[in-house]
Design brief:
500 residues; alpha/beta; Dihydrodipicolinate Reductase, domain 2; 60s Ribosomal Protein L30, Chain: A; 3 domains; 5-stranded mixed barrel; 4-stranded mixed beta sheet; 19 strands; 32% helix
Length: 500
């Protein structure tokens, strides 16, 4: 009978989470590299180049691939002959490992979990609790599969109960364009079919833990109906032209994974969950002999990409910018930003709006007139870093605040990731502002442009506090210009149904 020691289990969870925070899986690197070389769309190709360059930098520096280091999801298969040398529950064991990983002094990971989920929503401070699923199985082993799932992709999970005669393919092709680009494509889609409502969602989440093998499947052809379905969805989703970061291009998904389960004769439950460019998952088995070990990948697995951010980019000094200047910018234009900008996400926006509505002054230093705000919640710095990885968050969450900020504060520009909704685009056009995007999945690369940072307001919000960054040559792209033209609309339209 296998004895699993408390320290071995906790150490394995902690080490696994650290490992996946800075090492992309080899299958993902290979698939993304192939997509990069095949991509003719310039904006999408540049985005993939940044993701790949960022990935190598993170592997070399052992720092997080993305500032959103995710909520932890763990699937455990526990052999029924296993004994545990611990007084802790499985949930407590996992949480202890998560806490150790996210508070590692050499590579602290961003704590994103808040409790309660409604009301105060206070950050738990250590990214616990994890989401734990347990299955008892025959045997004497403990199989662990875990993922660190970013909020941008998790927020795009979809579920429906179709009529048994309905077309799954039609539902997927209708649903994927509604996801927008907040899930940071290209990535994977996990699809769960059957069971019950909760079972279909679990199947979709589990499907994302499988290795990417679409290249091999396309080469050999489908061996069964499920593989044929994967191939058909892969081709038809990519034909939508959404592309990397939603900018338009040939590759939106790198793979489509499907798991099924028997279901009620009257039902067809289906779930769809995307995985983002920060694909972070791993599996290991504990047999009582000690903690799991994880072998670092060979740096030769990363492609050598000659990415030049200055090529065809306009250099912009934020400290001397006017509305007349930004009026000349065009959608898809690449910029290198230097100067000072403020940061702020959902919670900071909410507080600013509350102050404005009460007629109270904004905190000292929060002067948005003729300035830009960056939607970011960075990782804590280590060593000589100014900030840790500091990539953009999904901008659509700020849409509800956009018009009032543009109207009442003099704000002229915003930086985030993914598309803006109709109300935000209308406000941008109305007030002659602009919206820029940085590449989601290139957080460490972006952070290298930040040369100074200081806390300005709302320190209690932690990573969501308002800071002032001083930046040099931060690479961004014009996503919505002052006339309200969005590259997230024009780009996919150009590449829809485009053949290589």
């Amino acid at each position: 009978m296998t004895l699993i020691r408390e320290t071995d289990f906790i150490t394995s969870i902690a080490d696994a989470l650290q490992f996946i925070s800075y090492y992309h899986p080899r299958d993902y690197l290979q698939a993304l590299t192939a997509a990069y070389h095949a991509e003719p769309a310039p904006a999408a190709r540049d985005a993939m180049a940044q993701i790949l360059v960022n990935s190598r930098l993170c592997a070399e520096g052992q720092r997080p691939i993305c500032q959103d280091t995710g909520l932890v999801v763990v699937f455990l298969k526990v052999g029924m002959n296993v004994r545990w040398d611990t007084a802790l529950s499985l949930q407590e064991l996992v949480n202890t490992g998560v806490r150790r990983a996210y508070q590692h002094p050499d590579n602290p990971l961003r704590a994103s979990m808040v409790a309660p989920p409604i009301g105060a929503r206070k950050n738990t401070g250590d990214n616990t609790p994890a989401i734990v699923h347990v299955e008892l199985v025959p045997g004497e082993l403990v199989e662990v599969r875990l993922a660190a799932k970013g909020g941008g992709s998790e927020n795009k999970a979809k579920f429906a109960v179709l009529n048994p005669s309905a077309s799954l393919i039609d539902w997927v092709l209708h649903t994927v364009p509604t996801l927008g680009a907040g899930w940071c494509p290209p990535g994977m889609l996990g699809i769960g079919i059957g069971g019950s409502a909760e079972k279909a969602m679990l199947l979709a989440k589990e499907a994302l833990l499988a290795p990417i093998d679409m290249h091999e499947l396309r080469a050999r052809g489908a061996a069964n109906s499920l593989e044929a379905l994967r191939l058909e969805l892969f081709e038809k989703i990519n034909a939508l032209g959404i592309g990397a970061q939603g900018l338009g291009g040939l590759t939106t998904v790198l793979d489509v994974k499907i798991l099924t389960y028997p279901t009620h004769a009257a039902s067809l439950p289906v779930a769809l969950i995307p995985n983002c460019a920060a694909t972070r998952h791993i599996e290991f088995t504990l047999d009582g002999s000690g903690p799991a070990t994880f072998t670092p990948p060979n740096l030769n697995d990363w492609p050598r990409i000659n990415w030049n951010p200055a090529a065809e980019a306009r250099r912009v000094n934020l400290d001397h910018l006017t509305r007349e200047d930004i009026a000349t910018w065009q959608p898809g234009e690449r910029l290198l930003l230097s100067g000072k900008l403020l940061t702020g996400r959902d919670a900071a926006h909410q507080r600013i709006i509350e102050l404005l509505n009460r007629g109270e002054p904004l905190p000292d230093g929060v002067d948005l007139n003729n300035r830009f705000i960056y939607y970011v919640g960075p990782v804590d710095p280590v060593g000589n870093e100014i900030v840790g990885p500091a990539g953009p968050t999904t901008a659509t969450r700020m849409d509800q605040f956009t018009e009032q900020l543009l109207r009442d504060t003099g704000l002229i520009g915003m930086i985030g990731k993914a598309e803006r909704g109709a109300i935000a685009i209308e406000a941008i056009k109305k007030y002659g502002a602009v919206y820029l995007i940085a590449v989601g999945g290139a957080a460490y690369l972006v952070a290298k442009a930040i040369k100074a940072a200081r806390l300005i307001a709302f320190a209690d919000l932690g990573m969501e506090a308002i800071r002032e960054f001083e930046i040099v040559d931060m690479p961004v792209m014009v996503a919505v210009n002052s006339h309200g033209i969005s590259i997230h609309e024009t780009g996919p339209a150009q590449w829809r149904n485009h053949s290589e």
